[in-house]
Design brief:
By secondary structure, this protein is an alpha/beta fold. The chain contains twelve helices and 21 strands. It has two domains: 242 residues, Metallo-beta-lactamase, Chain A, CATH 3.60.15; 142 residues, Flavodoxin domain (Rossmann fold), CATH 3.40.50. 34% of the residues lie in helices and 22% in strands. The protein has a seven-stranded mixed beta sheet with strand order 1-2-7-8-9-10-11. Helix 5 crosses helix 7, helix 5 packs across helix 9 and helix 8 crosses helix 12. It starts with 7 loop residues before the first strand and ends with a helix. 49% of the residues are buried. Bound molecules: MU-OXO-diiron (FEO). MU-OXO-diiron (FEO) binds next to helix 2. MU-OXO-diiron binds next to helix 2.
Length: 404
């Protein structure tokens, strides 16, 4: 196996030709403190095949990697597993160099590419649409396509290289990390990074994930590698990432309590710390998560894994703080399942934050734990004791409300 600066041969005649976006810190609202990669793969066979591309600003880098292996003008086939521009952005550059290449995509994939790349001459590109089970002969190898609608867009699909048992899974099974390593057994914390990625991208589509897992079983697929569109490649017992997806999609939780809040002059933070003390006294893991000091993507993983959370905000202008409102709007879109929530916070005179948080959290599908704990101006001894008691109750909920 070769490992040059330009490309990496991940299996005989199969190369990673993607790019590493070391400094990406925000992926359309998903904070990416570790950066990201956009993975593209090149298969050298009788038909030279490129699987996915990279963001448009990295087209030259990807094409240089391809050039280190083969003349890009000789690419016969381009597989577009997904329209989203982090995977298709360099497709126009590839089609300019290899204008006779055939693009393989789902019906919706073709439609999406043509709508987005009209000005790049998409109507002149040669497309073949594929569906689950469609096979493509590369000479000595065979690709099989698997439609994966809503994992995570309607057009999404995956590509399975039958002889080598490699699944090119596009967005599914990815992680947003930038590293010079390419395999799961070369990096630490990869399952945690995969959980953060799942929580922030795939959590709304749990029922689709479960159907997908059944489909993999029905098709009898076995894997030597699962090569996603982001992050590292799974080669050490690759099925473990599918098992993890099934657990997350089943809303499986562990007993712990994230205490999430923002504070204005420290009163809501005092309440959060008292709740934390209560949870800790019951010997249940707890985390204090200030919305200004933690990445929302990481907080969301904590929410996904916990059966119960606490969320607090002081009142400002009869409402919750904008940071809390923004996070609840983000969380609502991700549709977490089977969660309970306790609401707390301080107010100066009229209040209002607790009510507006309740409205948003109900809309996000949470069951509200009553009573909400509120304190006027600065929490006194009784208010802090109520918070500690709430923490103890949340610890009990965390053990009894677990989904395993
Ligand atoms: Fe749905 Fe990695 O794009």
């Amino acid at each position: 196996m070769n490992n040059t600066e330009d490309s990496l041969e991940i299996a005989n005649g199969i190369y990673w030709v993607g790019v590493i976006d070391w400094n990406l810190r925000d992926f359309h609202g998903y904070e990416t403190p570790k950066g990201a990669t956009y993975n593209a793969y090149l298969i050298i066979d009788e038909k030279i095949t490129l699987i996915d591309t990279v963001k448009s600003q990295f087209a030259e880098e990807m094409i240089d990697r391809i050039k280190s292996i083969v003349d890009p003008a000789t690419i016969d086939y381009v597989v577009s597993n997904h329209v989203e521009m982090d995977h298709s952005g360099s497709l126009p550059a590839v089609m300019e160099i290899a204008p006779n290449a055939t693009i393989f995509a789902t019906k919706r994939g073709k439609a999406g590419l043509c709508e987005y790349y009209t000005e790049n001459g998409c109507e002149s590109w040669d497309f073949e649409t594929v569906e689950t089970g469609t096979e493509l002969d590369l000479g000595t190898r065979t690709l099989m396509f698997i439609e994966t609608p809503m994992l995570h867009w309607p057009d999404s699909m995956q590509t399975y290289l039958k002889e080598d048992r490699i699944l090119f899974s596009n967005d599914a099974f990815g992680q947003h990390i930038s590293t010079s390593k390419r395999f799961d057994d070369e990096v630490d914390d990869v399952m945690d990074d995969a959980a953060i990625y799942y929580a922030n991208i795939l959590m709304p589509f749990g029922s689709r994930v479960l159907k997908y897992a059944d489909q993999v079983t029905e098709l009898g697929l076995e894997f030597n590698m699962i090569a996603p569109g982001h992050g590292i490649i799974w080669r050490k017992d690759p099925g473990r990432i599918i098992d993890a997806y099934v657990r997350w999609a089943s809303a499986e939780t562990v007993p712990k309590v994230p205490v999430i809040y923002d504070t204005m002059w420290g009163s809501t933070e005092r309440m959060a710390r008292a709740i934390l003390e209560g949870v800790r006294s019951a010997d249940i893991p707890v985390k204090l998560l200030d919305l200004h000091k933690n990445d929302w993507s990481m907080i969301t993983k904590e929410v996904m894994e916990a059966p119960v959370i606490a969320i607090g905000s002081p009142t400002m202008n009869n409402n919750m703080l904008p940071s809390v409102a923004g996070y609840l709007s983000y969380l609502k879109g991700l549709r977490p399942k089977n969660k309970k929530v306790a609401i707390f916070g301080s107010f100066g005179w009229g209040g209002g934050a607790a009510k507006s948080m309740e409205t948003e959290l109900k809309a996000a599908g949470f069951e509200i734990i009553e009573p909400k704990v509120q304190a006027k101006f600065r929490p006194d001894k009784d208010s802090l004791e109520a918070c500690r008691e709430l923490g103890i109750r949340l610890a009990e909920e965390a053990t009894s409300n677990q989904v395993i």
